[in-house]
């Protein structure tokens, strides 16, 4: 029997071959790097069954369809096992969006993309495994270090060294925490600030001469009143074998204290399912984890559409929800077909007392962004999932633009479900939260540093 080279299963065979080789390089009909470098639609690198949901499901699902327990079997191969379980057993649904042209402005912030193209081919690792500029010497100079990653470590470097693809980002986040019976346990508002001190795409190339650091990250809770002022500051070293310094301010104790490294695997406040270790699928320095390996690659449904940017959709500012025992567990999420996802496993080799035994991340091979993360406990049992959506902040009604006139790009929503306790937290980026804090990607960075990113700032914020 003669098998045609480009039959319906050609991509599946190609993915299997790449996985066996441990390759992270993206593309089936051709590599995506030449298309990325020229600003073209990356879908040209894939056959029809990886571009069209209708072709992929042989006509059973099309854009505009709503996936529920009644038809989820048609897309089971495009979901994680927890996604499938949520839809099949807990009333979750997803809305299929027509995948738009996968051009650079859809997959990246444009200035980050431009820096990635400009610096292509310069990235390498030193003897200690840290990212360097192999041509100019010294630390990495900004953008994705490996636009065409060759293995799991290179793909993870893309995720770790610049979480949100911005030098500075301030996310105003609203969170609802759901009890196992489907009732609301808590509702929080918090500010998440991240500022890269090195690996920057704009001037200054090193912020405040912090050459030994990679980033500063503060989480500040502003609501409800009993948690307002609680804050956490992480100081990340550029050396990815070093643990971040973690400080926190609790209004009850009225002082800043330093937390142990394993605090990264615990909830920050009561009821929330988010750990610092969960951030972006790369919440810990990459050399404190190990045994990175690509275990699979396949198409997946991904929440990349700007339609998950909720601003302006509802008068009260609250996104629509559904599912669970009381109809308030899950966002109404638009998802589309991602032609190629890397499935990467790793283990917390630097944390002997970590409750996590293994982490599995599903990564969009086109831009190395997190699609989904699943963690397993030390027994190897399923524990938590992190479902993230990211893309241009333009829902067709309102766009968030930067000072250059470009539509901003970044995370839109995420959900974290602890399936062992059946507790779920759902988050979205709001335009503004209690205290007047706004989502922003540009600011006076020195003022932000002084106001939010020092131990003294934590004390002032807690006393305010």
TrEMBL record:
What Pfam families does the record point to?
DUF1329
Q: What is this protein called?
A: DUF1329 domain-containing protein
């Amino acid at each position: 029997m003669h098998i045609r080279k480009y039959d319906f299963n050609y991509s599946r065979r190609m993915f299997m071959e790449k996985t066996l080789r441990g390759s992270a390089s993206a593309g089936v009909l051709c590599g995506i790097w030449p298309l990325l470098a020229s600003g073209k639609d990356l879908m040209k690198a894939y056959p029809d069954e990886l571009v069209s949901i209708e072709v992929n499901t042989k006509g059973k699902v099309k854009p505009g369809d709503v996936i529920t327990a009644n038809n989820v079997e048609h897309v089971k191969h495009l979901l994680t096992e927890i996604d499938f379980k949520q839809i099949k057993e807990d009333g979750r649904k997803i809305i299929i969006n027509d995948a738009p042209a996968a051009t650079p402005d859809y997959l990246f912030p444009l200035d980050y993309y431009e820096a990635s193209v400009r610096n292509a081919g310069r990235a390498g690792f030193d003897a200690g495994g840290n990212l360097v500029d192999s041509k100019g010497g010294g630390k990495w100079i900004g953008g994705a270090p490996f636009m065409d990653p060759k293995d799991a470590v290179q793909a993870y470097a893309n995720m770790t060294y610049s979480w949100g693809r911005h030098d500075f980002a301030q996310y105003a986040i609203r969170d609802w925490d759901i009890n196992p019976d489907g009732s609301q346990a808590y509702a929080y508002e918090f500010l998440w600030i991240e500022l890269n001190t090195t690996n920057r795409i704009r001037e200054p190339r090193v912020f405040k001469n912090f050459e030994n650091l990679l980033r500063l990250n503060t989480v500040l809770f502003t609501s409800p009143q009993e948690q307002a002022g609680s804050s956490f500051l992480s100081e990340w070293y550029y050396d990815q074998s070093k643990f971040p310094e973690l400080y926190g301010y609790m209004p009850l104790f009225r002082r800043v204290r330093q937390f142990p490294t394993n605090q990264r695997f615990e909830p920050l406040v009561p009821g929330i399912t988010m750990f610092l270790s969960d951030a972006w699928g790369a919440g810990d320095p990459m050399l404190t984890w190990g045994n990175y390996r690509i275990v699979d690659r396949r198409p997946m449904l991904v929440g990349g559409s700007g339609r998950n940017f909720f601003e302006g959709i509802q008068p009260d500012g609250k996104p629509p929800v559904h599912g669970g025992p009381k109809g308030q567990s899950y966002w109404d999420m638009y998802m589309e077909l991602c032609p190629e996802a890397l499935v990467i496993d790793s283990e917390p080799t630097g944390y002997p007392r970590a409750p996590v035994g293994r982490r599995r991340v599903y990564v969009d091979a086109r831009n190395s962004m997190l699609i989904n993360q699943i963690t397993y406990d030390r027994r190897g049992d399923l524990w938590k999932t992190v479902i993230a959506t990211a893309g241009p902040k333009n829902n067709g009604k309102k766009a968030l633009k930067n000072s250059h006139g470009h539509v901003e790009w970044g995370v839109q929503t995420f959900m974290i479900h602890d399936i062992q306790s059946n507790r779920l937290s759902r988050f979205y980026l709001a335009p503004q939260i209690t205290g007047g804090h706004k989502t922003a990607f540009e600011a006076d960075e020195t003022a932000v540093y002084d106001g939010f990113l020092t131990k003294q700032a934590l004390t002032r914020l807690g006393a305010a």
